[in-house]
Specification:
The protein has 157 residues and is mainly α. It contains eight helices and no strands. Helix 2 packs antiparallel against helix 3, helix 4 packs antiparallel against helix 5 and helix 5 packs parallel to helix 7. The chain is globular.
């Protein structure tokens, strides 16, 4: 995964430290310097959107998430982050649709299941919410057991 690439380390470490201004600056440089496409561009744009969310720049973050989807149309983290913006604005069914699309794209993406569970619960669909949350727990446990680092709950990805 791109997270393990040395050239991305400064930006990702800044995100991990919640130094969103530094992360955005590093990601801007990476996007300017690299002629990347597809999955790599989607990854960088999505991460810059996460940094911008941390800076409370929701509209430009939304643009980054949408640009990530232009680079890779079924990029689960960007779909999930767009779902998060919809969930925050109370557009529950649209958020659910985004989370379900993310899961269709990557059935191992625990964050999408976690957020889908939250959206279902807010929509009063408790049983579906519990199932989605349990699936997120199972996936997280499987990833933890395998030693892979895929997501951190409660933060945009």
């Amino acid at each position: 995964m791109f997270r393990d690439r040395d050239e991305f380390a400064c930006a990702l470490e800044a995100l991990d430290r919640r130094d969103f201004a530094r992360a955005q600056s590093e990601l801007d440089l990476l996007l300017e310097r690299r002629s990347c496409g597809g999955a790599e561009r989607a990854f960088l744009l999505n991460k810059r959107g996460v940094a911008r969310m941390g800076l409370d720049q929701r509209e430009v973050a939304r643009a980054d998430f949408e640009a990530a989807l232009e680079a890779q149309s079924h990029y689960a983290p960007a779909l999930t982050n767009l779902g998060n913006l919809l969930l925050e604005s109370g557009r529950l069914q649209e958020a659910i649709d985004h989370y379900e699309r993310a899961i269709s794209s990557d059935g191992e993406y625990a964050v999408a299941f976690l957020n889908l569970g939250v959206a279902y619960k807010r929509a009063g669909r408790i049983a579906e919410g519990v199932r989605a949350l349990r699936q997120a727990q199972r996936l997280e446990q499987r990833l933890r057991t395998s030693g892979r680092r895929y997501y951190r709950p409660s933060r945009p990805q």
